[in-house]
């Protein structure tokens, strides 16, 4: 499901699969939670391969954001296609959890001051 591309002391970049739906969201979420339990405080999820994303996936991202926020960590979503970015913005989620244009941009972004990613527009 989730492919870890880079792992540092506290930071992990992972590639999401092509489809995130009811069946896969729970598995992906569990994998991410394992990474968090192992000490990851900055989790970058690369969505460049994601073609299908339903509400289960959105719920999973929000649950991961809450878990990391409670640990003063950060969830960064990156490289989603134009359709997914448009839906994310339409839902108003871009103010809570911005989408970065690339995983590198997500890694380079400054840490949020209050423990939450509230950038108006990440790119």
Structural commentary:
InterPro entries: STAS_dom, STAS_dom_sf. This is STAS domain-containing protein. Residues 9-110 form the STAS domain. It comes from Streptomyces argyrophylli. By secondary structure, the protein is an alpha/beta fold. The chain has one domain (3-108): STAS domain (Transcription Regulator spoIIAA), CATH 3.30.750. Helices cover 38% and strands 21% of the residues. The protein has four helices and seven strands; from the N terminus they run βββαββαβαβα. It has helices at residues 22-37, 55-70, 82-90, 103-108, and strands spanning 3-7, 11-15, 19-20, 42-46, 52-53, 74-78, 99-100. The strands form two sheets. A five-stranded mixed sheet has the order 1-2-4-6-7. Strands 3-5 form a two-stranded parallel ribbon. A hairpin with a 3-residue loop joins β1 (3-7) and β2. The radius of gyration is 13 Å and the shape is globular. It starts with a strand and ends in a 15-residue tail after the last helix. Mean pLDDT is 91; it is low at 115-123.
Can you tag this structure with a few keywords?
123 residues; alpha/beta; Transcription Regulator spoIIAA; five-stranded mixed beta sheet; 4 helices; 21% strand; disordered C terminus
Helix count, DSSP H or I runs of 4 or more residues:
4
Oligomeric state of the chains?
single chain
What fraction strand?
15-25%
Order of helices and strands: EEEHEEHEHEH
The overall number of domains is 1
- Per CATH, the class reads Alpha Beta
InterPro entries: STAS_dom (IPR002645), STAS_dom_sf (IPR036513)
GO molecular function: anti-sigma factor antagonist activity
Pfam family, one: STAS
Protein name: STAS domain-containing protein
């Amino acid at each position: 499901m989730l492919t870890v591309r880079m792992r540092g002391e506290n930071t992990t970049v992972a590639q999401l699969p092509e489809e995130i739906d009811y069946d896969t969201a729970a598995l992906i979420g569990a994998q991410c939670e394992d990474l968090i339990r192992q000490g990851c405080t900055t989790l970058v999820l690369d969505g460049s391969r994601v073609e299908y994303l339903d509400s289960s996936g959105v719920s999973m991202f929000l649950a991961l954001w809450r878990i990391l926020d409670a640990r003063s960590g950060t969830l960064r979503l990156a490289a989603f296609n134009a359709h997914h970015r448009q839906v994310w913005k339409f839902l108003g989620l871009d103010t809570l959890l911005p989408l970065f244009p690339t995983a590198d941009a997500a890694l380079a972004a400054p840490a949020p001051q209050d423990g939450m990613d509230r950038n108006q527009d990440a790119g």
